[in-house]
Specification:
Layout (H helix, E strand, L loop, with lengths): L11 H14 L6 H9 L5 E4 L7 H7 L11 E5 L2 H11 L9 E4 L12 E6 L10 H14 E11 L9 E12 L2 E12 L4 E12 L2 E12 L3 H10 L2 E7 L14 E7 L1
Parallel strand pairs: 1-2, 1-4, 2-3, 4-5
Antiparallel strand pairs: 5-11, 6-7, 7-8, 8-9, 10-11
Helix pairs in contact: 1-4
Length: 267
C-alpha cells in the first residue's frame, strides 16, 4: 500500500466492482425496508450521503411510484467515487424517469447544495465511520444541518461491532461465483488502531476466470465512536435526537445491538 495519510474515501474506487457482490453476502437487503419507510414518512427533497452503487436509492425511488407518495419529490445521492457512481447510473437507468434520482460527485463535508432546501439527509451503512477524525465528522454534520430545513430529518446508520473485530491476516471470509465462469475470493487482513478508534481492512479480491487470475488490492479504514459521543456531536451540529434504535425493526438500542440507528431533526 502507498504510504499516504489515510482518508475515509481512499480505497472505494478499487472496491466498487465488488461492493454489491460482497454486500449481498453480508448485509443483504435487511436495511432497505427501514430506510424506504423512514424516507416515505418525510416530505421534501432527499439526499443520501455516500450513495455508492445506488443500493438504497433504487428501492426508495421505486417506492415513490406507489399510491400515497408525495408527488414531485426530488431524490439525490452524492459520492466521491466516480466508479461507484458509474455503477449507480447503470442501476438507476432502469428506474422510471418520473422518480429517477440524480447523482452528484462531491465531498460530504462540503455539500454542493443551497441552504435549507432539503427535507431529509440519510447517511446509511456506516457512512459517518468513513470520517476518520473529529474535524471531518463535525464538518459533515454541519453541512447536513446547513442544507436541511427546520424540522428536516437526519438518518444515520452505524456498524457497531468493528472495534471488537479480532485482528488477523490473510483470512478468507467470502468466496463464490462472481459471474458466469468467474469466481472471486476475498483475502482479508484486519488490524486495530485502538488509540484513534480505527479499524483497518487490507483487502485483496482474487478474480479467476479460466487460467486468468487478477488481484485487486485496497485498504478501507473506519472510525467508530461510542454512542454517547455520536449523539453529542449530532446535537452540537444543531439537531434534536428523536430516536435511537438497535435494529431495523425499531428495537431498543443497547451497546451490543446489531446496528445503531439514529434519527434526528434539524432544530
Amino acid at each position: 500500500m502507498a504510504n499516504r495519510k489515510a482518508e475515509g474515501w481512499h480505497g472505494w474506487d478499487t472496491y466498487a466492482p465488488f461492493y454489491d457482490w460482497e454486500n449481498a453476502r453480508t448485509l443483504g437487503r435487511r436495511d432497505v425496508a427501514f430506510w424506504v419507510q423512514a424516507v416515505r414518512n418525510t416530505r421534501g427533497a432527499v439526499l443520501e450521503l455516500g450513495c455508492g452503487t445506488g443500493r438504497l436509492l433504487t428501492p426508495i425511488a421505486r417506492s415513490w411510484l406507489k399510491p400515497g407518495a408525495e408527488p414531485g419529490r426530488r431524490l439525490m445521492g452524492i459520492d466521491r467515487s466516480a466508479p461507484m457512481l458509474a455503477r449507480a447510473r447503470r442501476r438507476l437507468a432502469r428506474v422510471p424517469k418520473a422518480v429517477r434520482p440524480s447523482l452528484l460527485r462531491g465531498d460530504v463535508r462540503t455539500l454542493p447544495l443551497r441552504s435549507r432546501t432539503l427535507g431529509t439527509v440519510v447517511a446509511a451503512y456506516g457512512l459517518l465511520q468513513s470520517l476518520l477524525n473529529d474535524r471531518d465528522l463535525e464538518a459533515t454534520l454541519a453541512s447536513a444541518a446547513r442544507v436541511l430545513r427546520r424540522g428536516g430529518l437526519l438518518g444515520i446508520d452505524l456498524v457497531p461491532d468493528l472495534p471488537v473485530w479480532d485482528e488477523y491476516s490473510g483470512r478468507i471470509p467470502i468466496r463464490g461465483q462472481y459471474a458466469a465462469g468467474t469466481t472471486v475470493t476475498l483475502v482479508e487482513s484486519v488490524r486495530q488502531d485502538r488509540r484513534r478508534g480505527l479499524t483497518i481492512f487490507d483487502d485483496q479480491y482474487v478474480v479467476r476466470r479460466g487460467r486468468t487470475v487478477r488481484r485487486h488490492e485496497f485498504r478501507l479504514t473506519f472510525r467508530t465512536l461510542p454512542m454517547a459521543q455520536i449523539l453529542a456531536r449530532i446535537e452540537r451540529a444543531g439537531f434534536r435526537v428523536d430516536a435511537v434504535h438497535g435494529s431495523y425493526a425499531g428495537g431498543p438500542w443497547h451497546p451490543e445491538a446489531d446496528v445503531w440507528v439514529v434519527l434526528a431533526r434539524r432544530r
